Amino acid sequence: MKRFFLILMILLVTAVFGLLYLPAYLSASSIEGPTIVEVPQGASLSYVSDLLQQQGIIKSKLWFRYQAKAKNVDRSIKPGTYTIEPDMTLDDIFELLQKGQQAQQIVLTIPEGFTLYQIAERVEATGLASADEFIEATVAYYTEKGFSFDTSKLFYALEGYLYPDTYYFNVTQTAKDIISRMSKQMDEVFTEEYLKRAKELNLSTHEVLTIASLIEREAYHDQEMKAISGVIYNRLEKTMLLQIDATVIYAIGEGKEHITRVLYAHLESSNPFNTYKHLGLPPGPIAAPSKKAIEAALYPESHDYMYYVLGDNGHVFSKTYSEHLINVDKYRKMTNN
Q: How do beta strands 105-109 and 80-84 pair?
């Protein structure tokens, strides 16, 4: 009998705790900074709850739906661009969704293969922050998030770590907010499957992003990315210099300027990014890689090619240096005509 009453008391205390504290916990937002949410025309309660949970704004979409239905919010959701603040409760969010409030927003589009400096310039063009502020914020973010890769030979701490995509920001958001969003997007793209695959290849995330950035800058089109990746792995395996022009261009411009023509003098540069002089991978990424480039870096095409040169519609691959010289000669004749 005593045991029965003990169990009953435990259940009673658990129930009281749940009734008193669980609703407050589930009703509080879990975001660290202002977050913009796009609710399209005709969006259902299910769509909105999924969206809010994906962005980390709510802890439970089931609790959100339950509360919304109880307060008849599910029938009065209006489309709009909403700014959700960290201290907002579910009631605050419900009020916003019923008002159809339009927050002033700025669209930031970052093309695949952009360097961090180019990203900073694009941010400055939107008026969200100056290029210098943005670059300084990347250094602070590197320290704050505890990244462990060595930056001593890099031009920019987070080169290759900000995912190229189209983003929507509020005019009140800071350079740190932008960097955080882009960095988190890269984390979402670099899935657990990708992390597992990198481990299988005995590569760090930094090395994978480095390879992916080389592929991004070298590939003429997406279809040849895995073939180029295969060449990179083949040359690394045979301890050959990668001899990738994109790394020389990045080194000469110090991550800022993109020269249009690589000269023999450029190939003699001692910069650690010059893969004509230094074996192995450069010290870090040279641009922001796309998901396709990251996937190509993780799943290279298996072949015996060691060289490639630009042809009519993409790169022409060859297994031997003599074959490569023939292809180079063809390219030169093609460009001179």
A: unpaired
Give the per-residue pLDDT at 17.
44
In CATH terms, 25-99 corresponds, of 1.25.40.20, 2.60.200.30, 1.20.1090.10, 3.30.1490.480, to 3.30.1490.480
Domain boundaries, the chain: 25-99, 105-189, 192-305, 306-337
- Alpha-carbon span 85 to 332, nearest angstrom: 58
DSSP string, 257-315: ---SS--TTGGG---TT-TTTS-S--SS-SS---HHHHHHHHS-------EEEEETTEE
- Tell me what the mean pLDDT of segment 22-40 comes to: 66
Question: Given this model, what pLDDT does residue 18 score?
Answer: 43
| pLDDT score recorded for residue 263 | 55
Helix (H) or strand (E) holding 84: strand 80-84
Q: Which region among 45-49, 103-107, 209-213 has the lowest average model confidence (pLDDT)?
A: 103-107
Q: Work out the mean pLDDT of the chain and round it to a whole number.
A: 85
Using alpha carbons, select from 119, 111, 163, 150 the residue that is nearest to residue 137. 119
End-to-end Cα separation, the chain, in angstroms: 99
Between 35 and 264, the higher pLDDT residue? 35
Alpha-helical regions (H) of 127-274: 131-145, 175-189, 192-200, 205-218, 225-237, 245-252
Q: Is 142 helix (H, G, I), strand (E, B) or coil?
A: helix
- pTM, two decimals, is 0.73
Tokens of residue 284, six digits:
């870090």
- Adjacent-strand bridge partners of 35: 84
Query: What is the predicted pLDDT for the residue at 15?
Result: 43
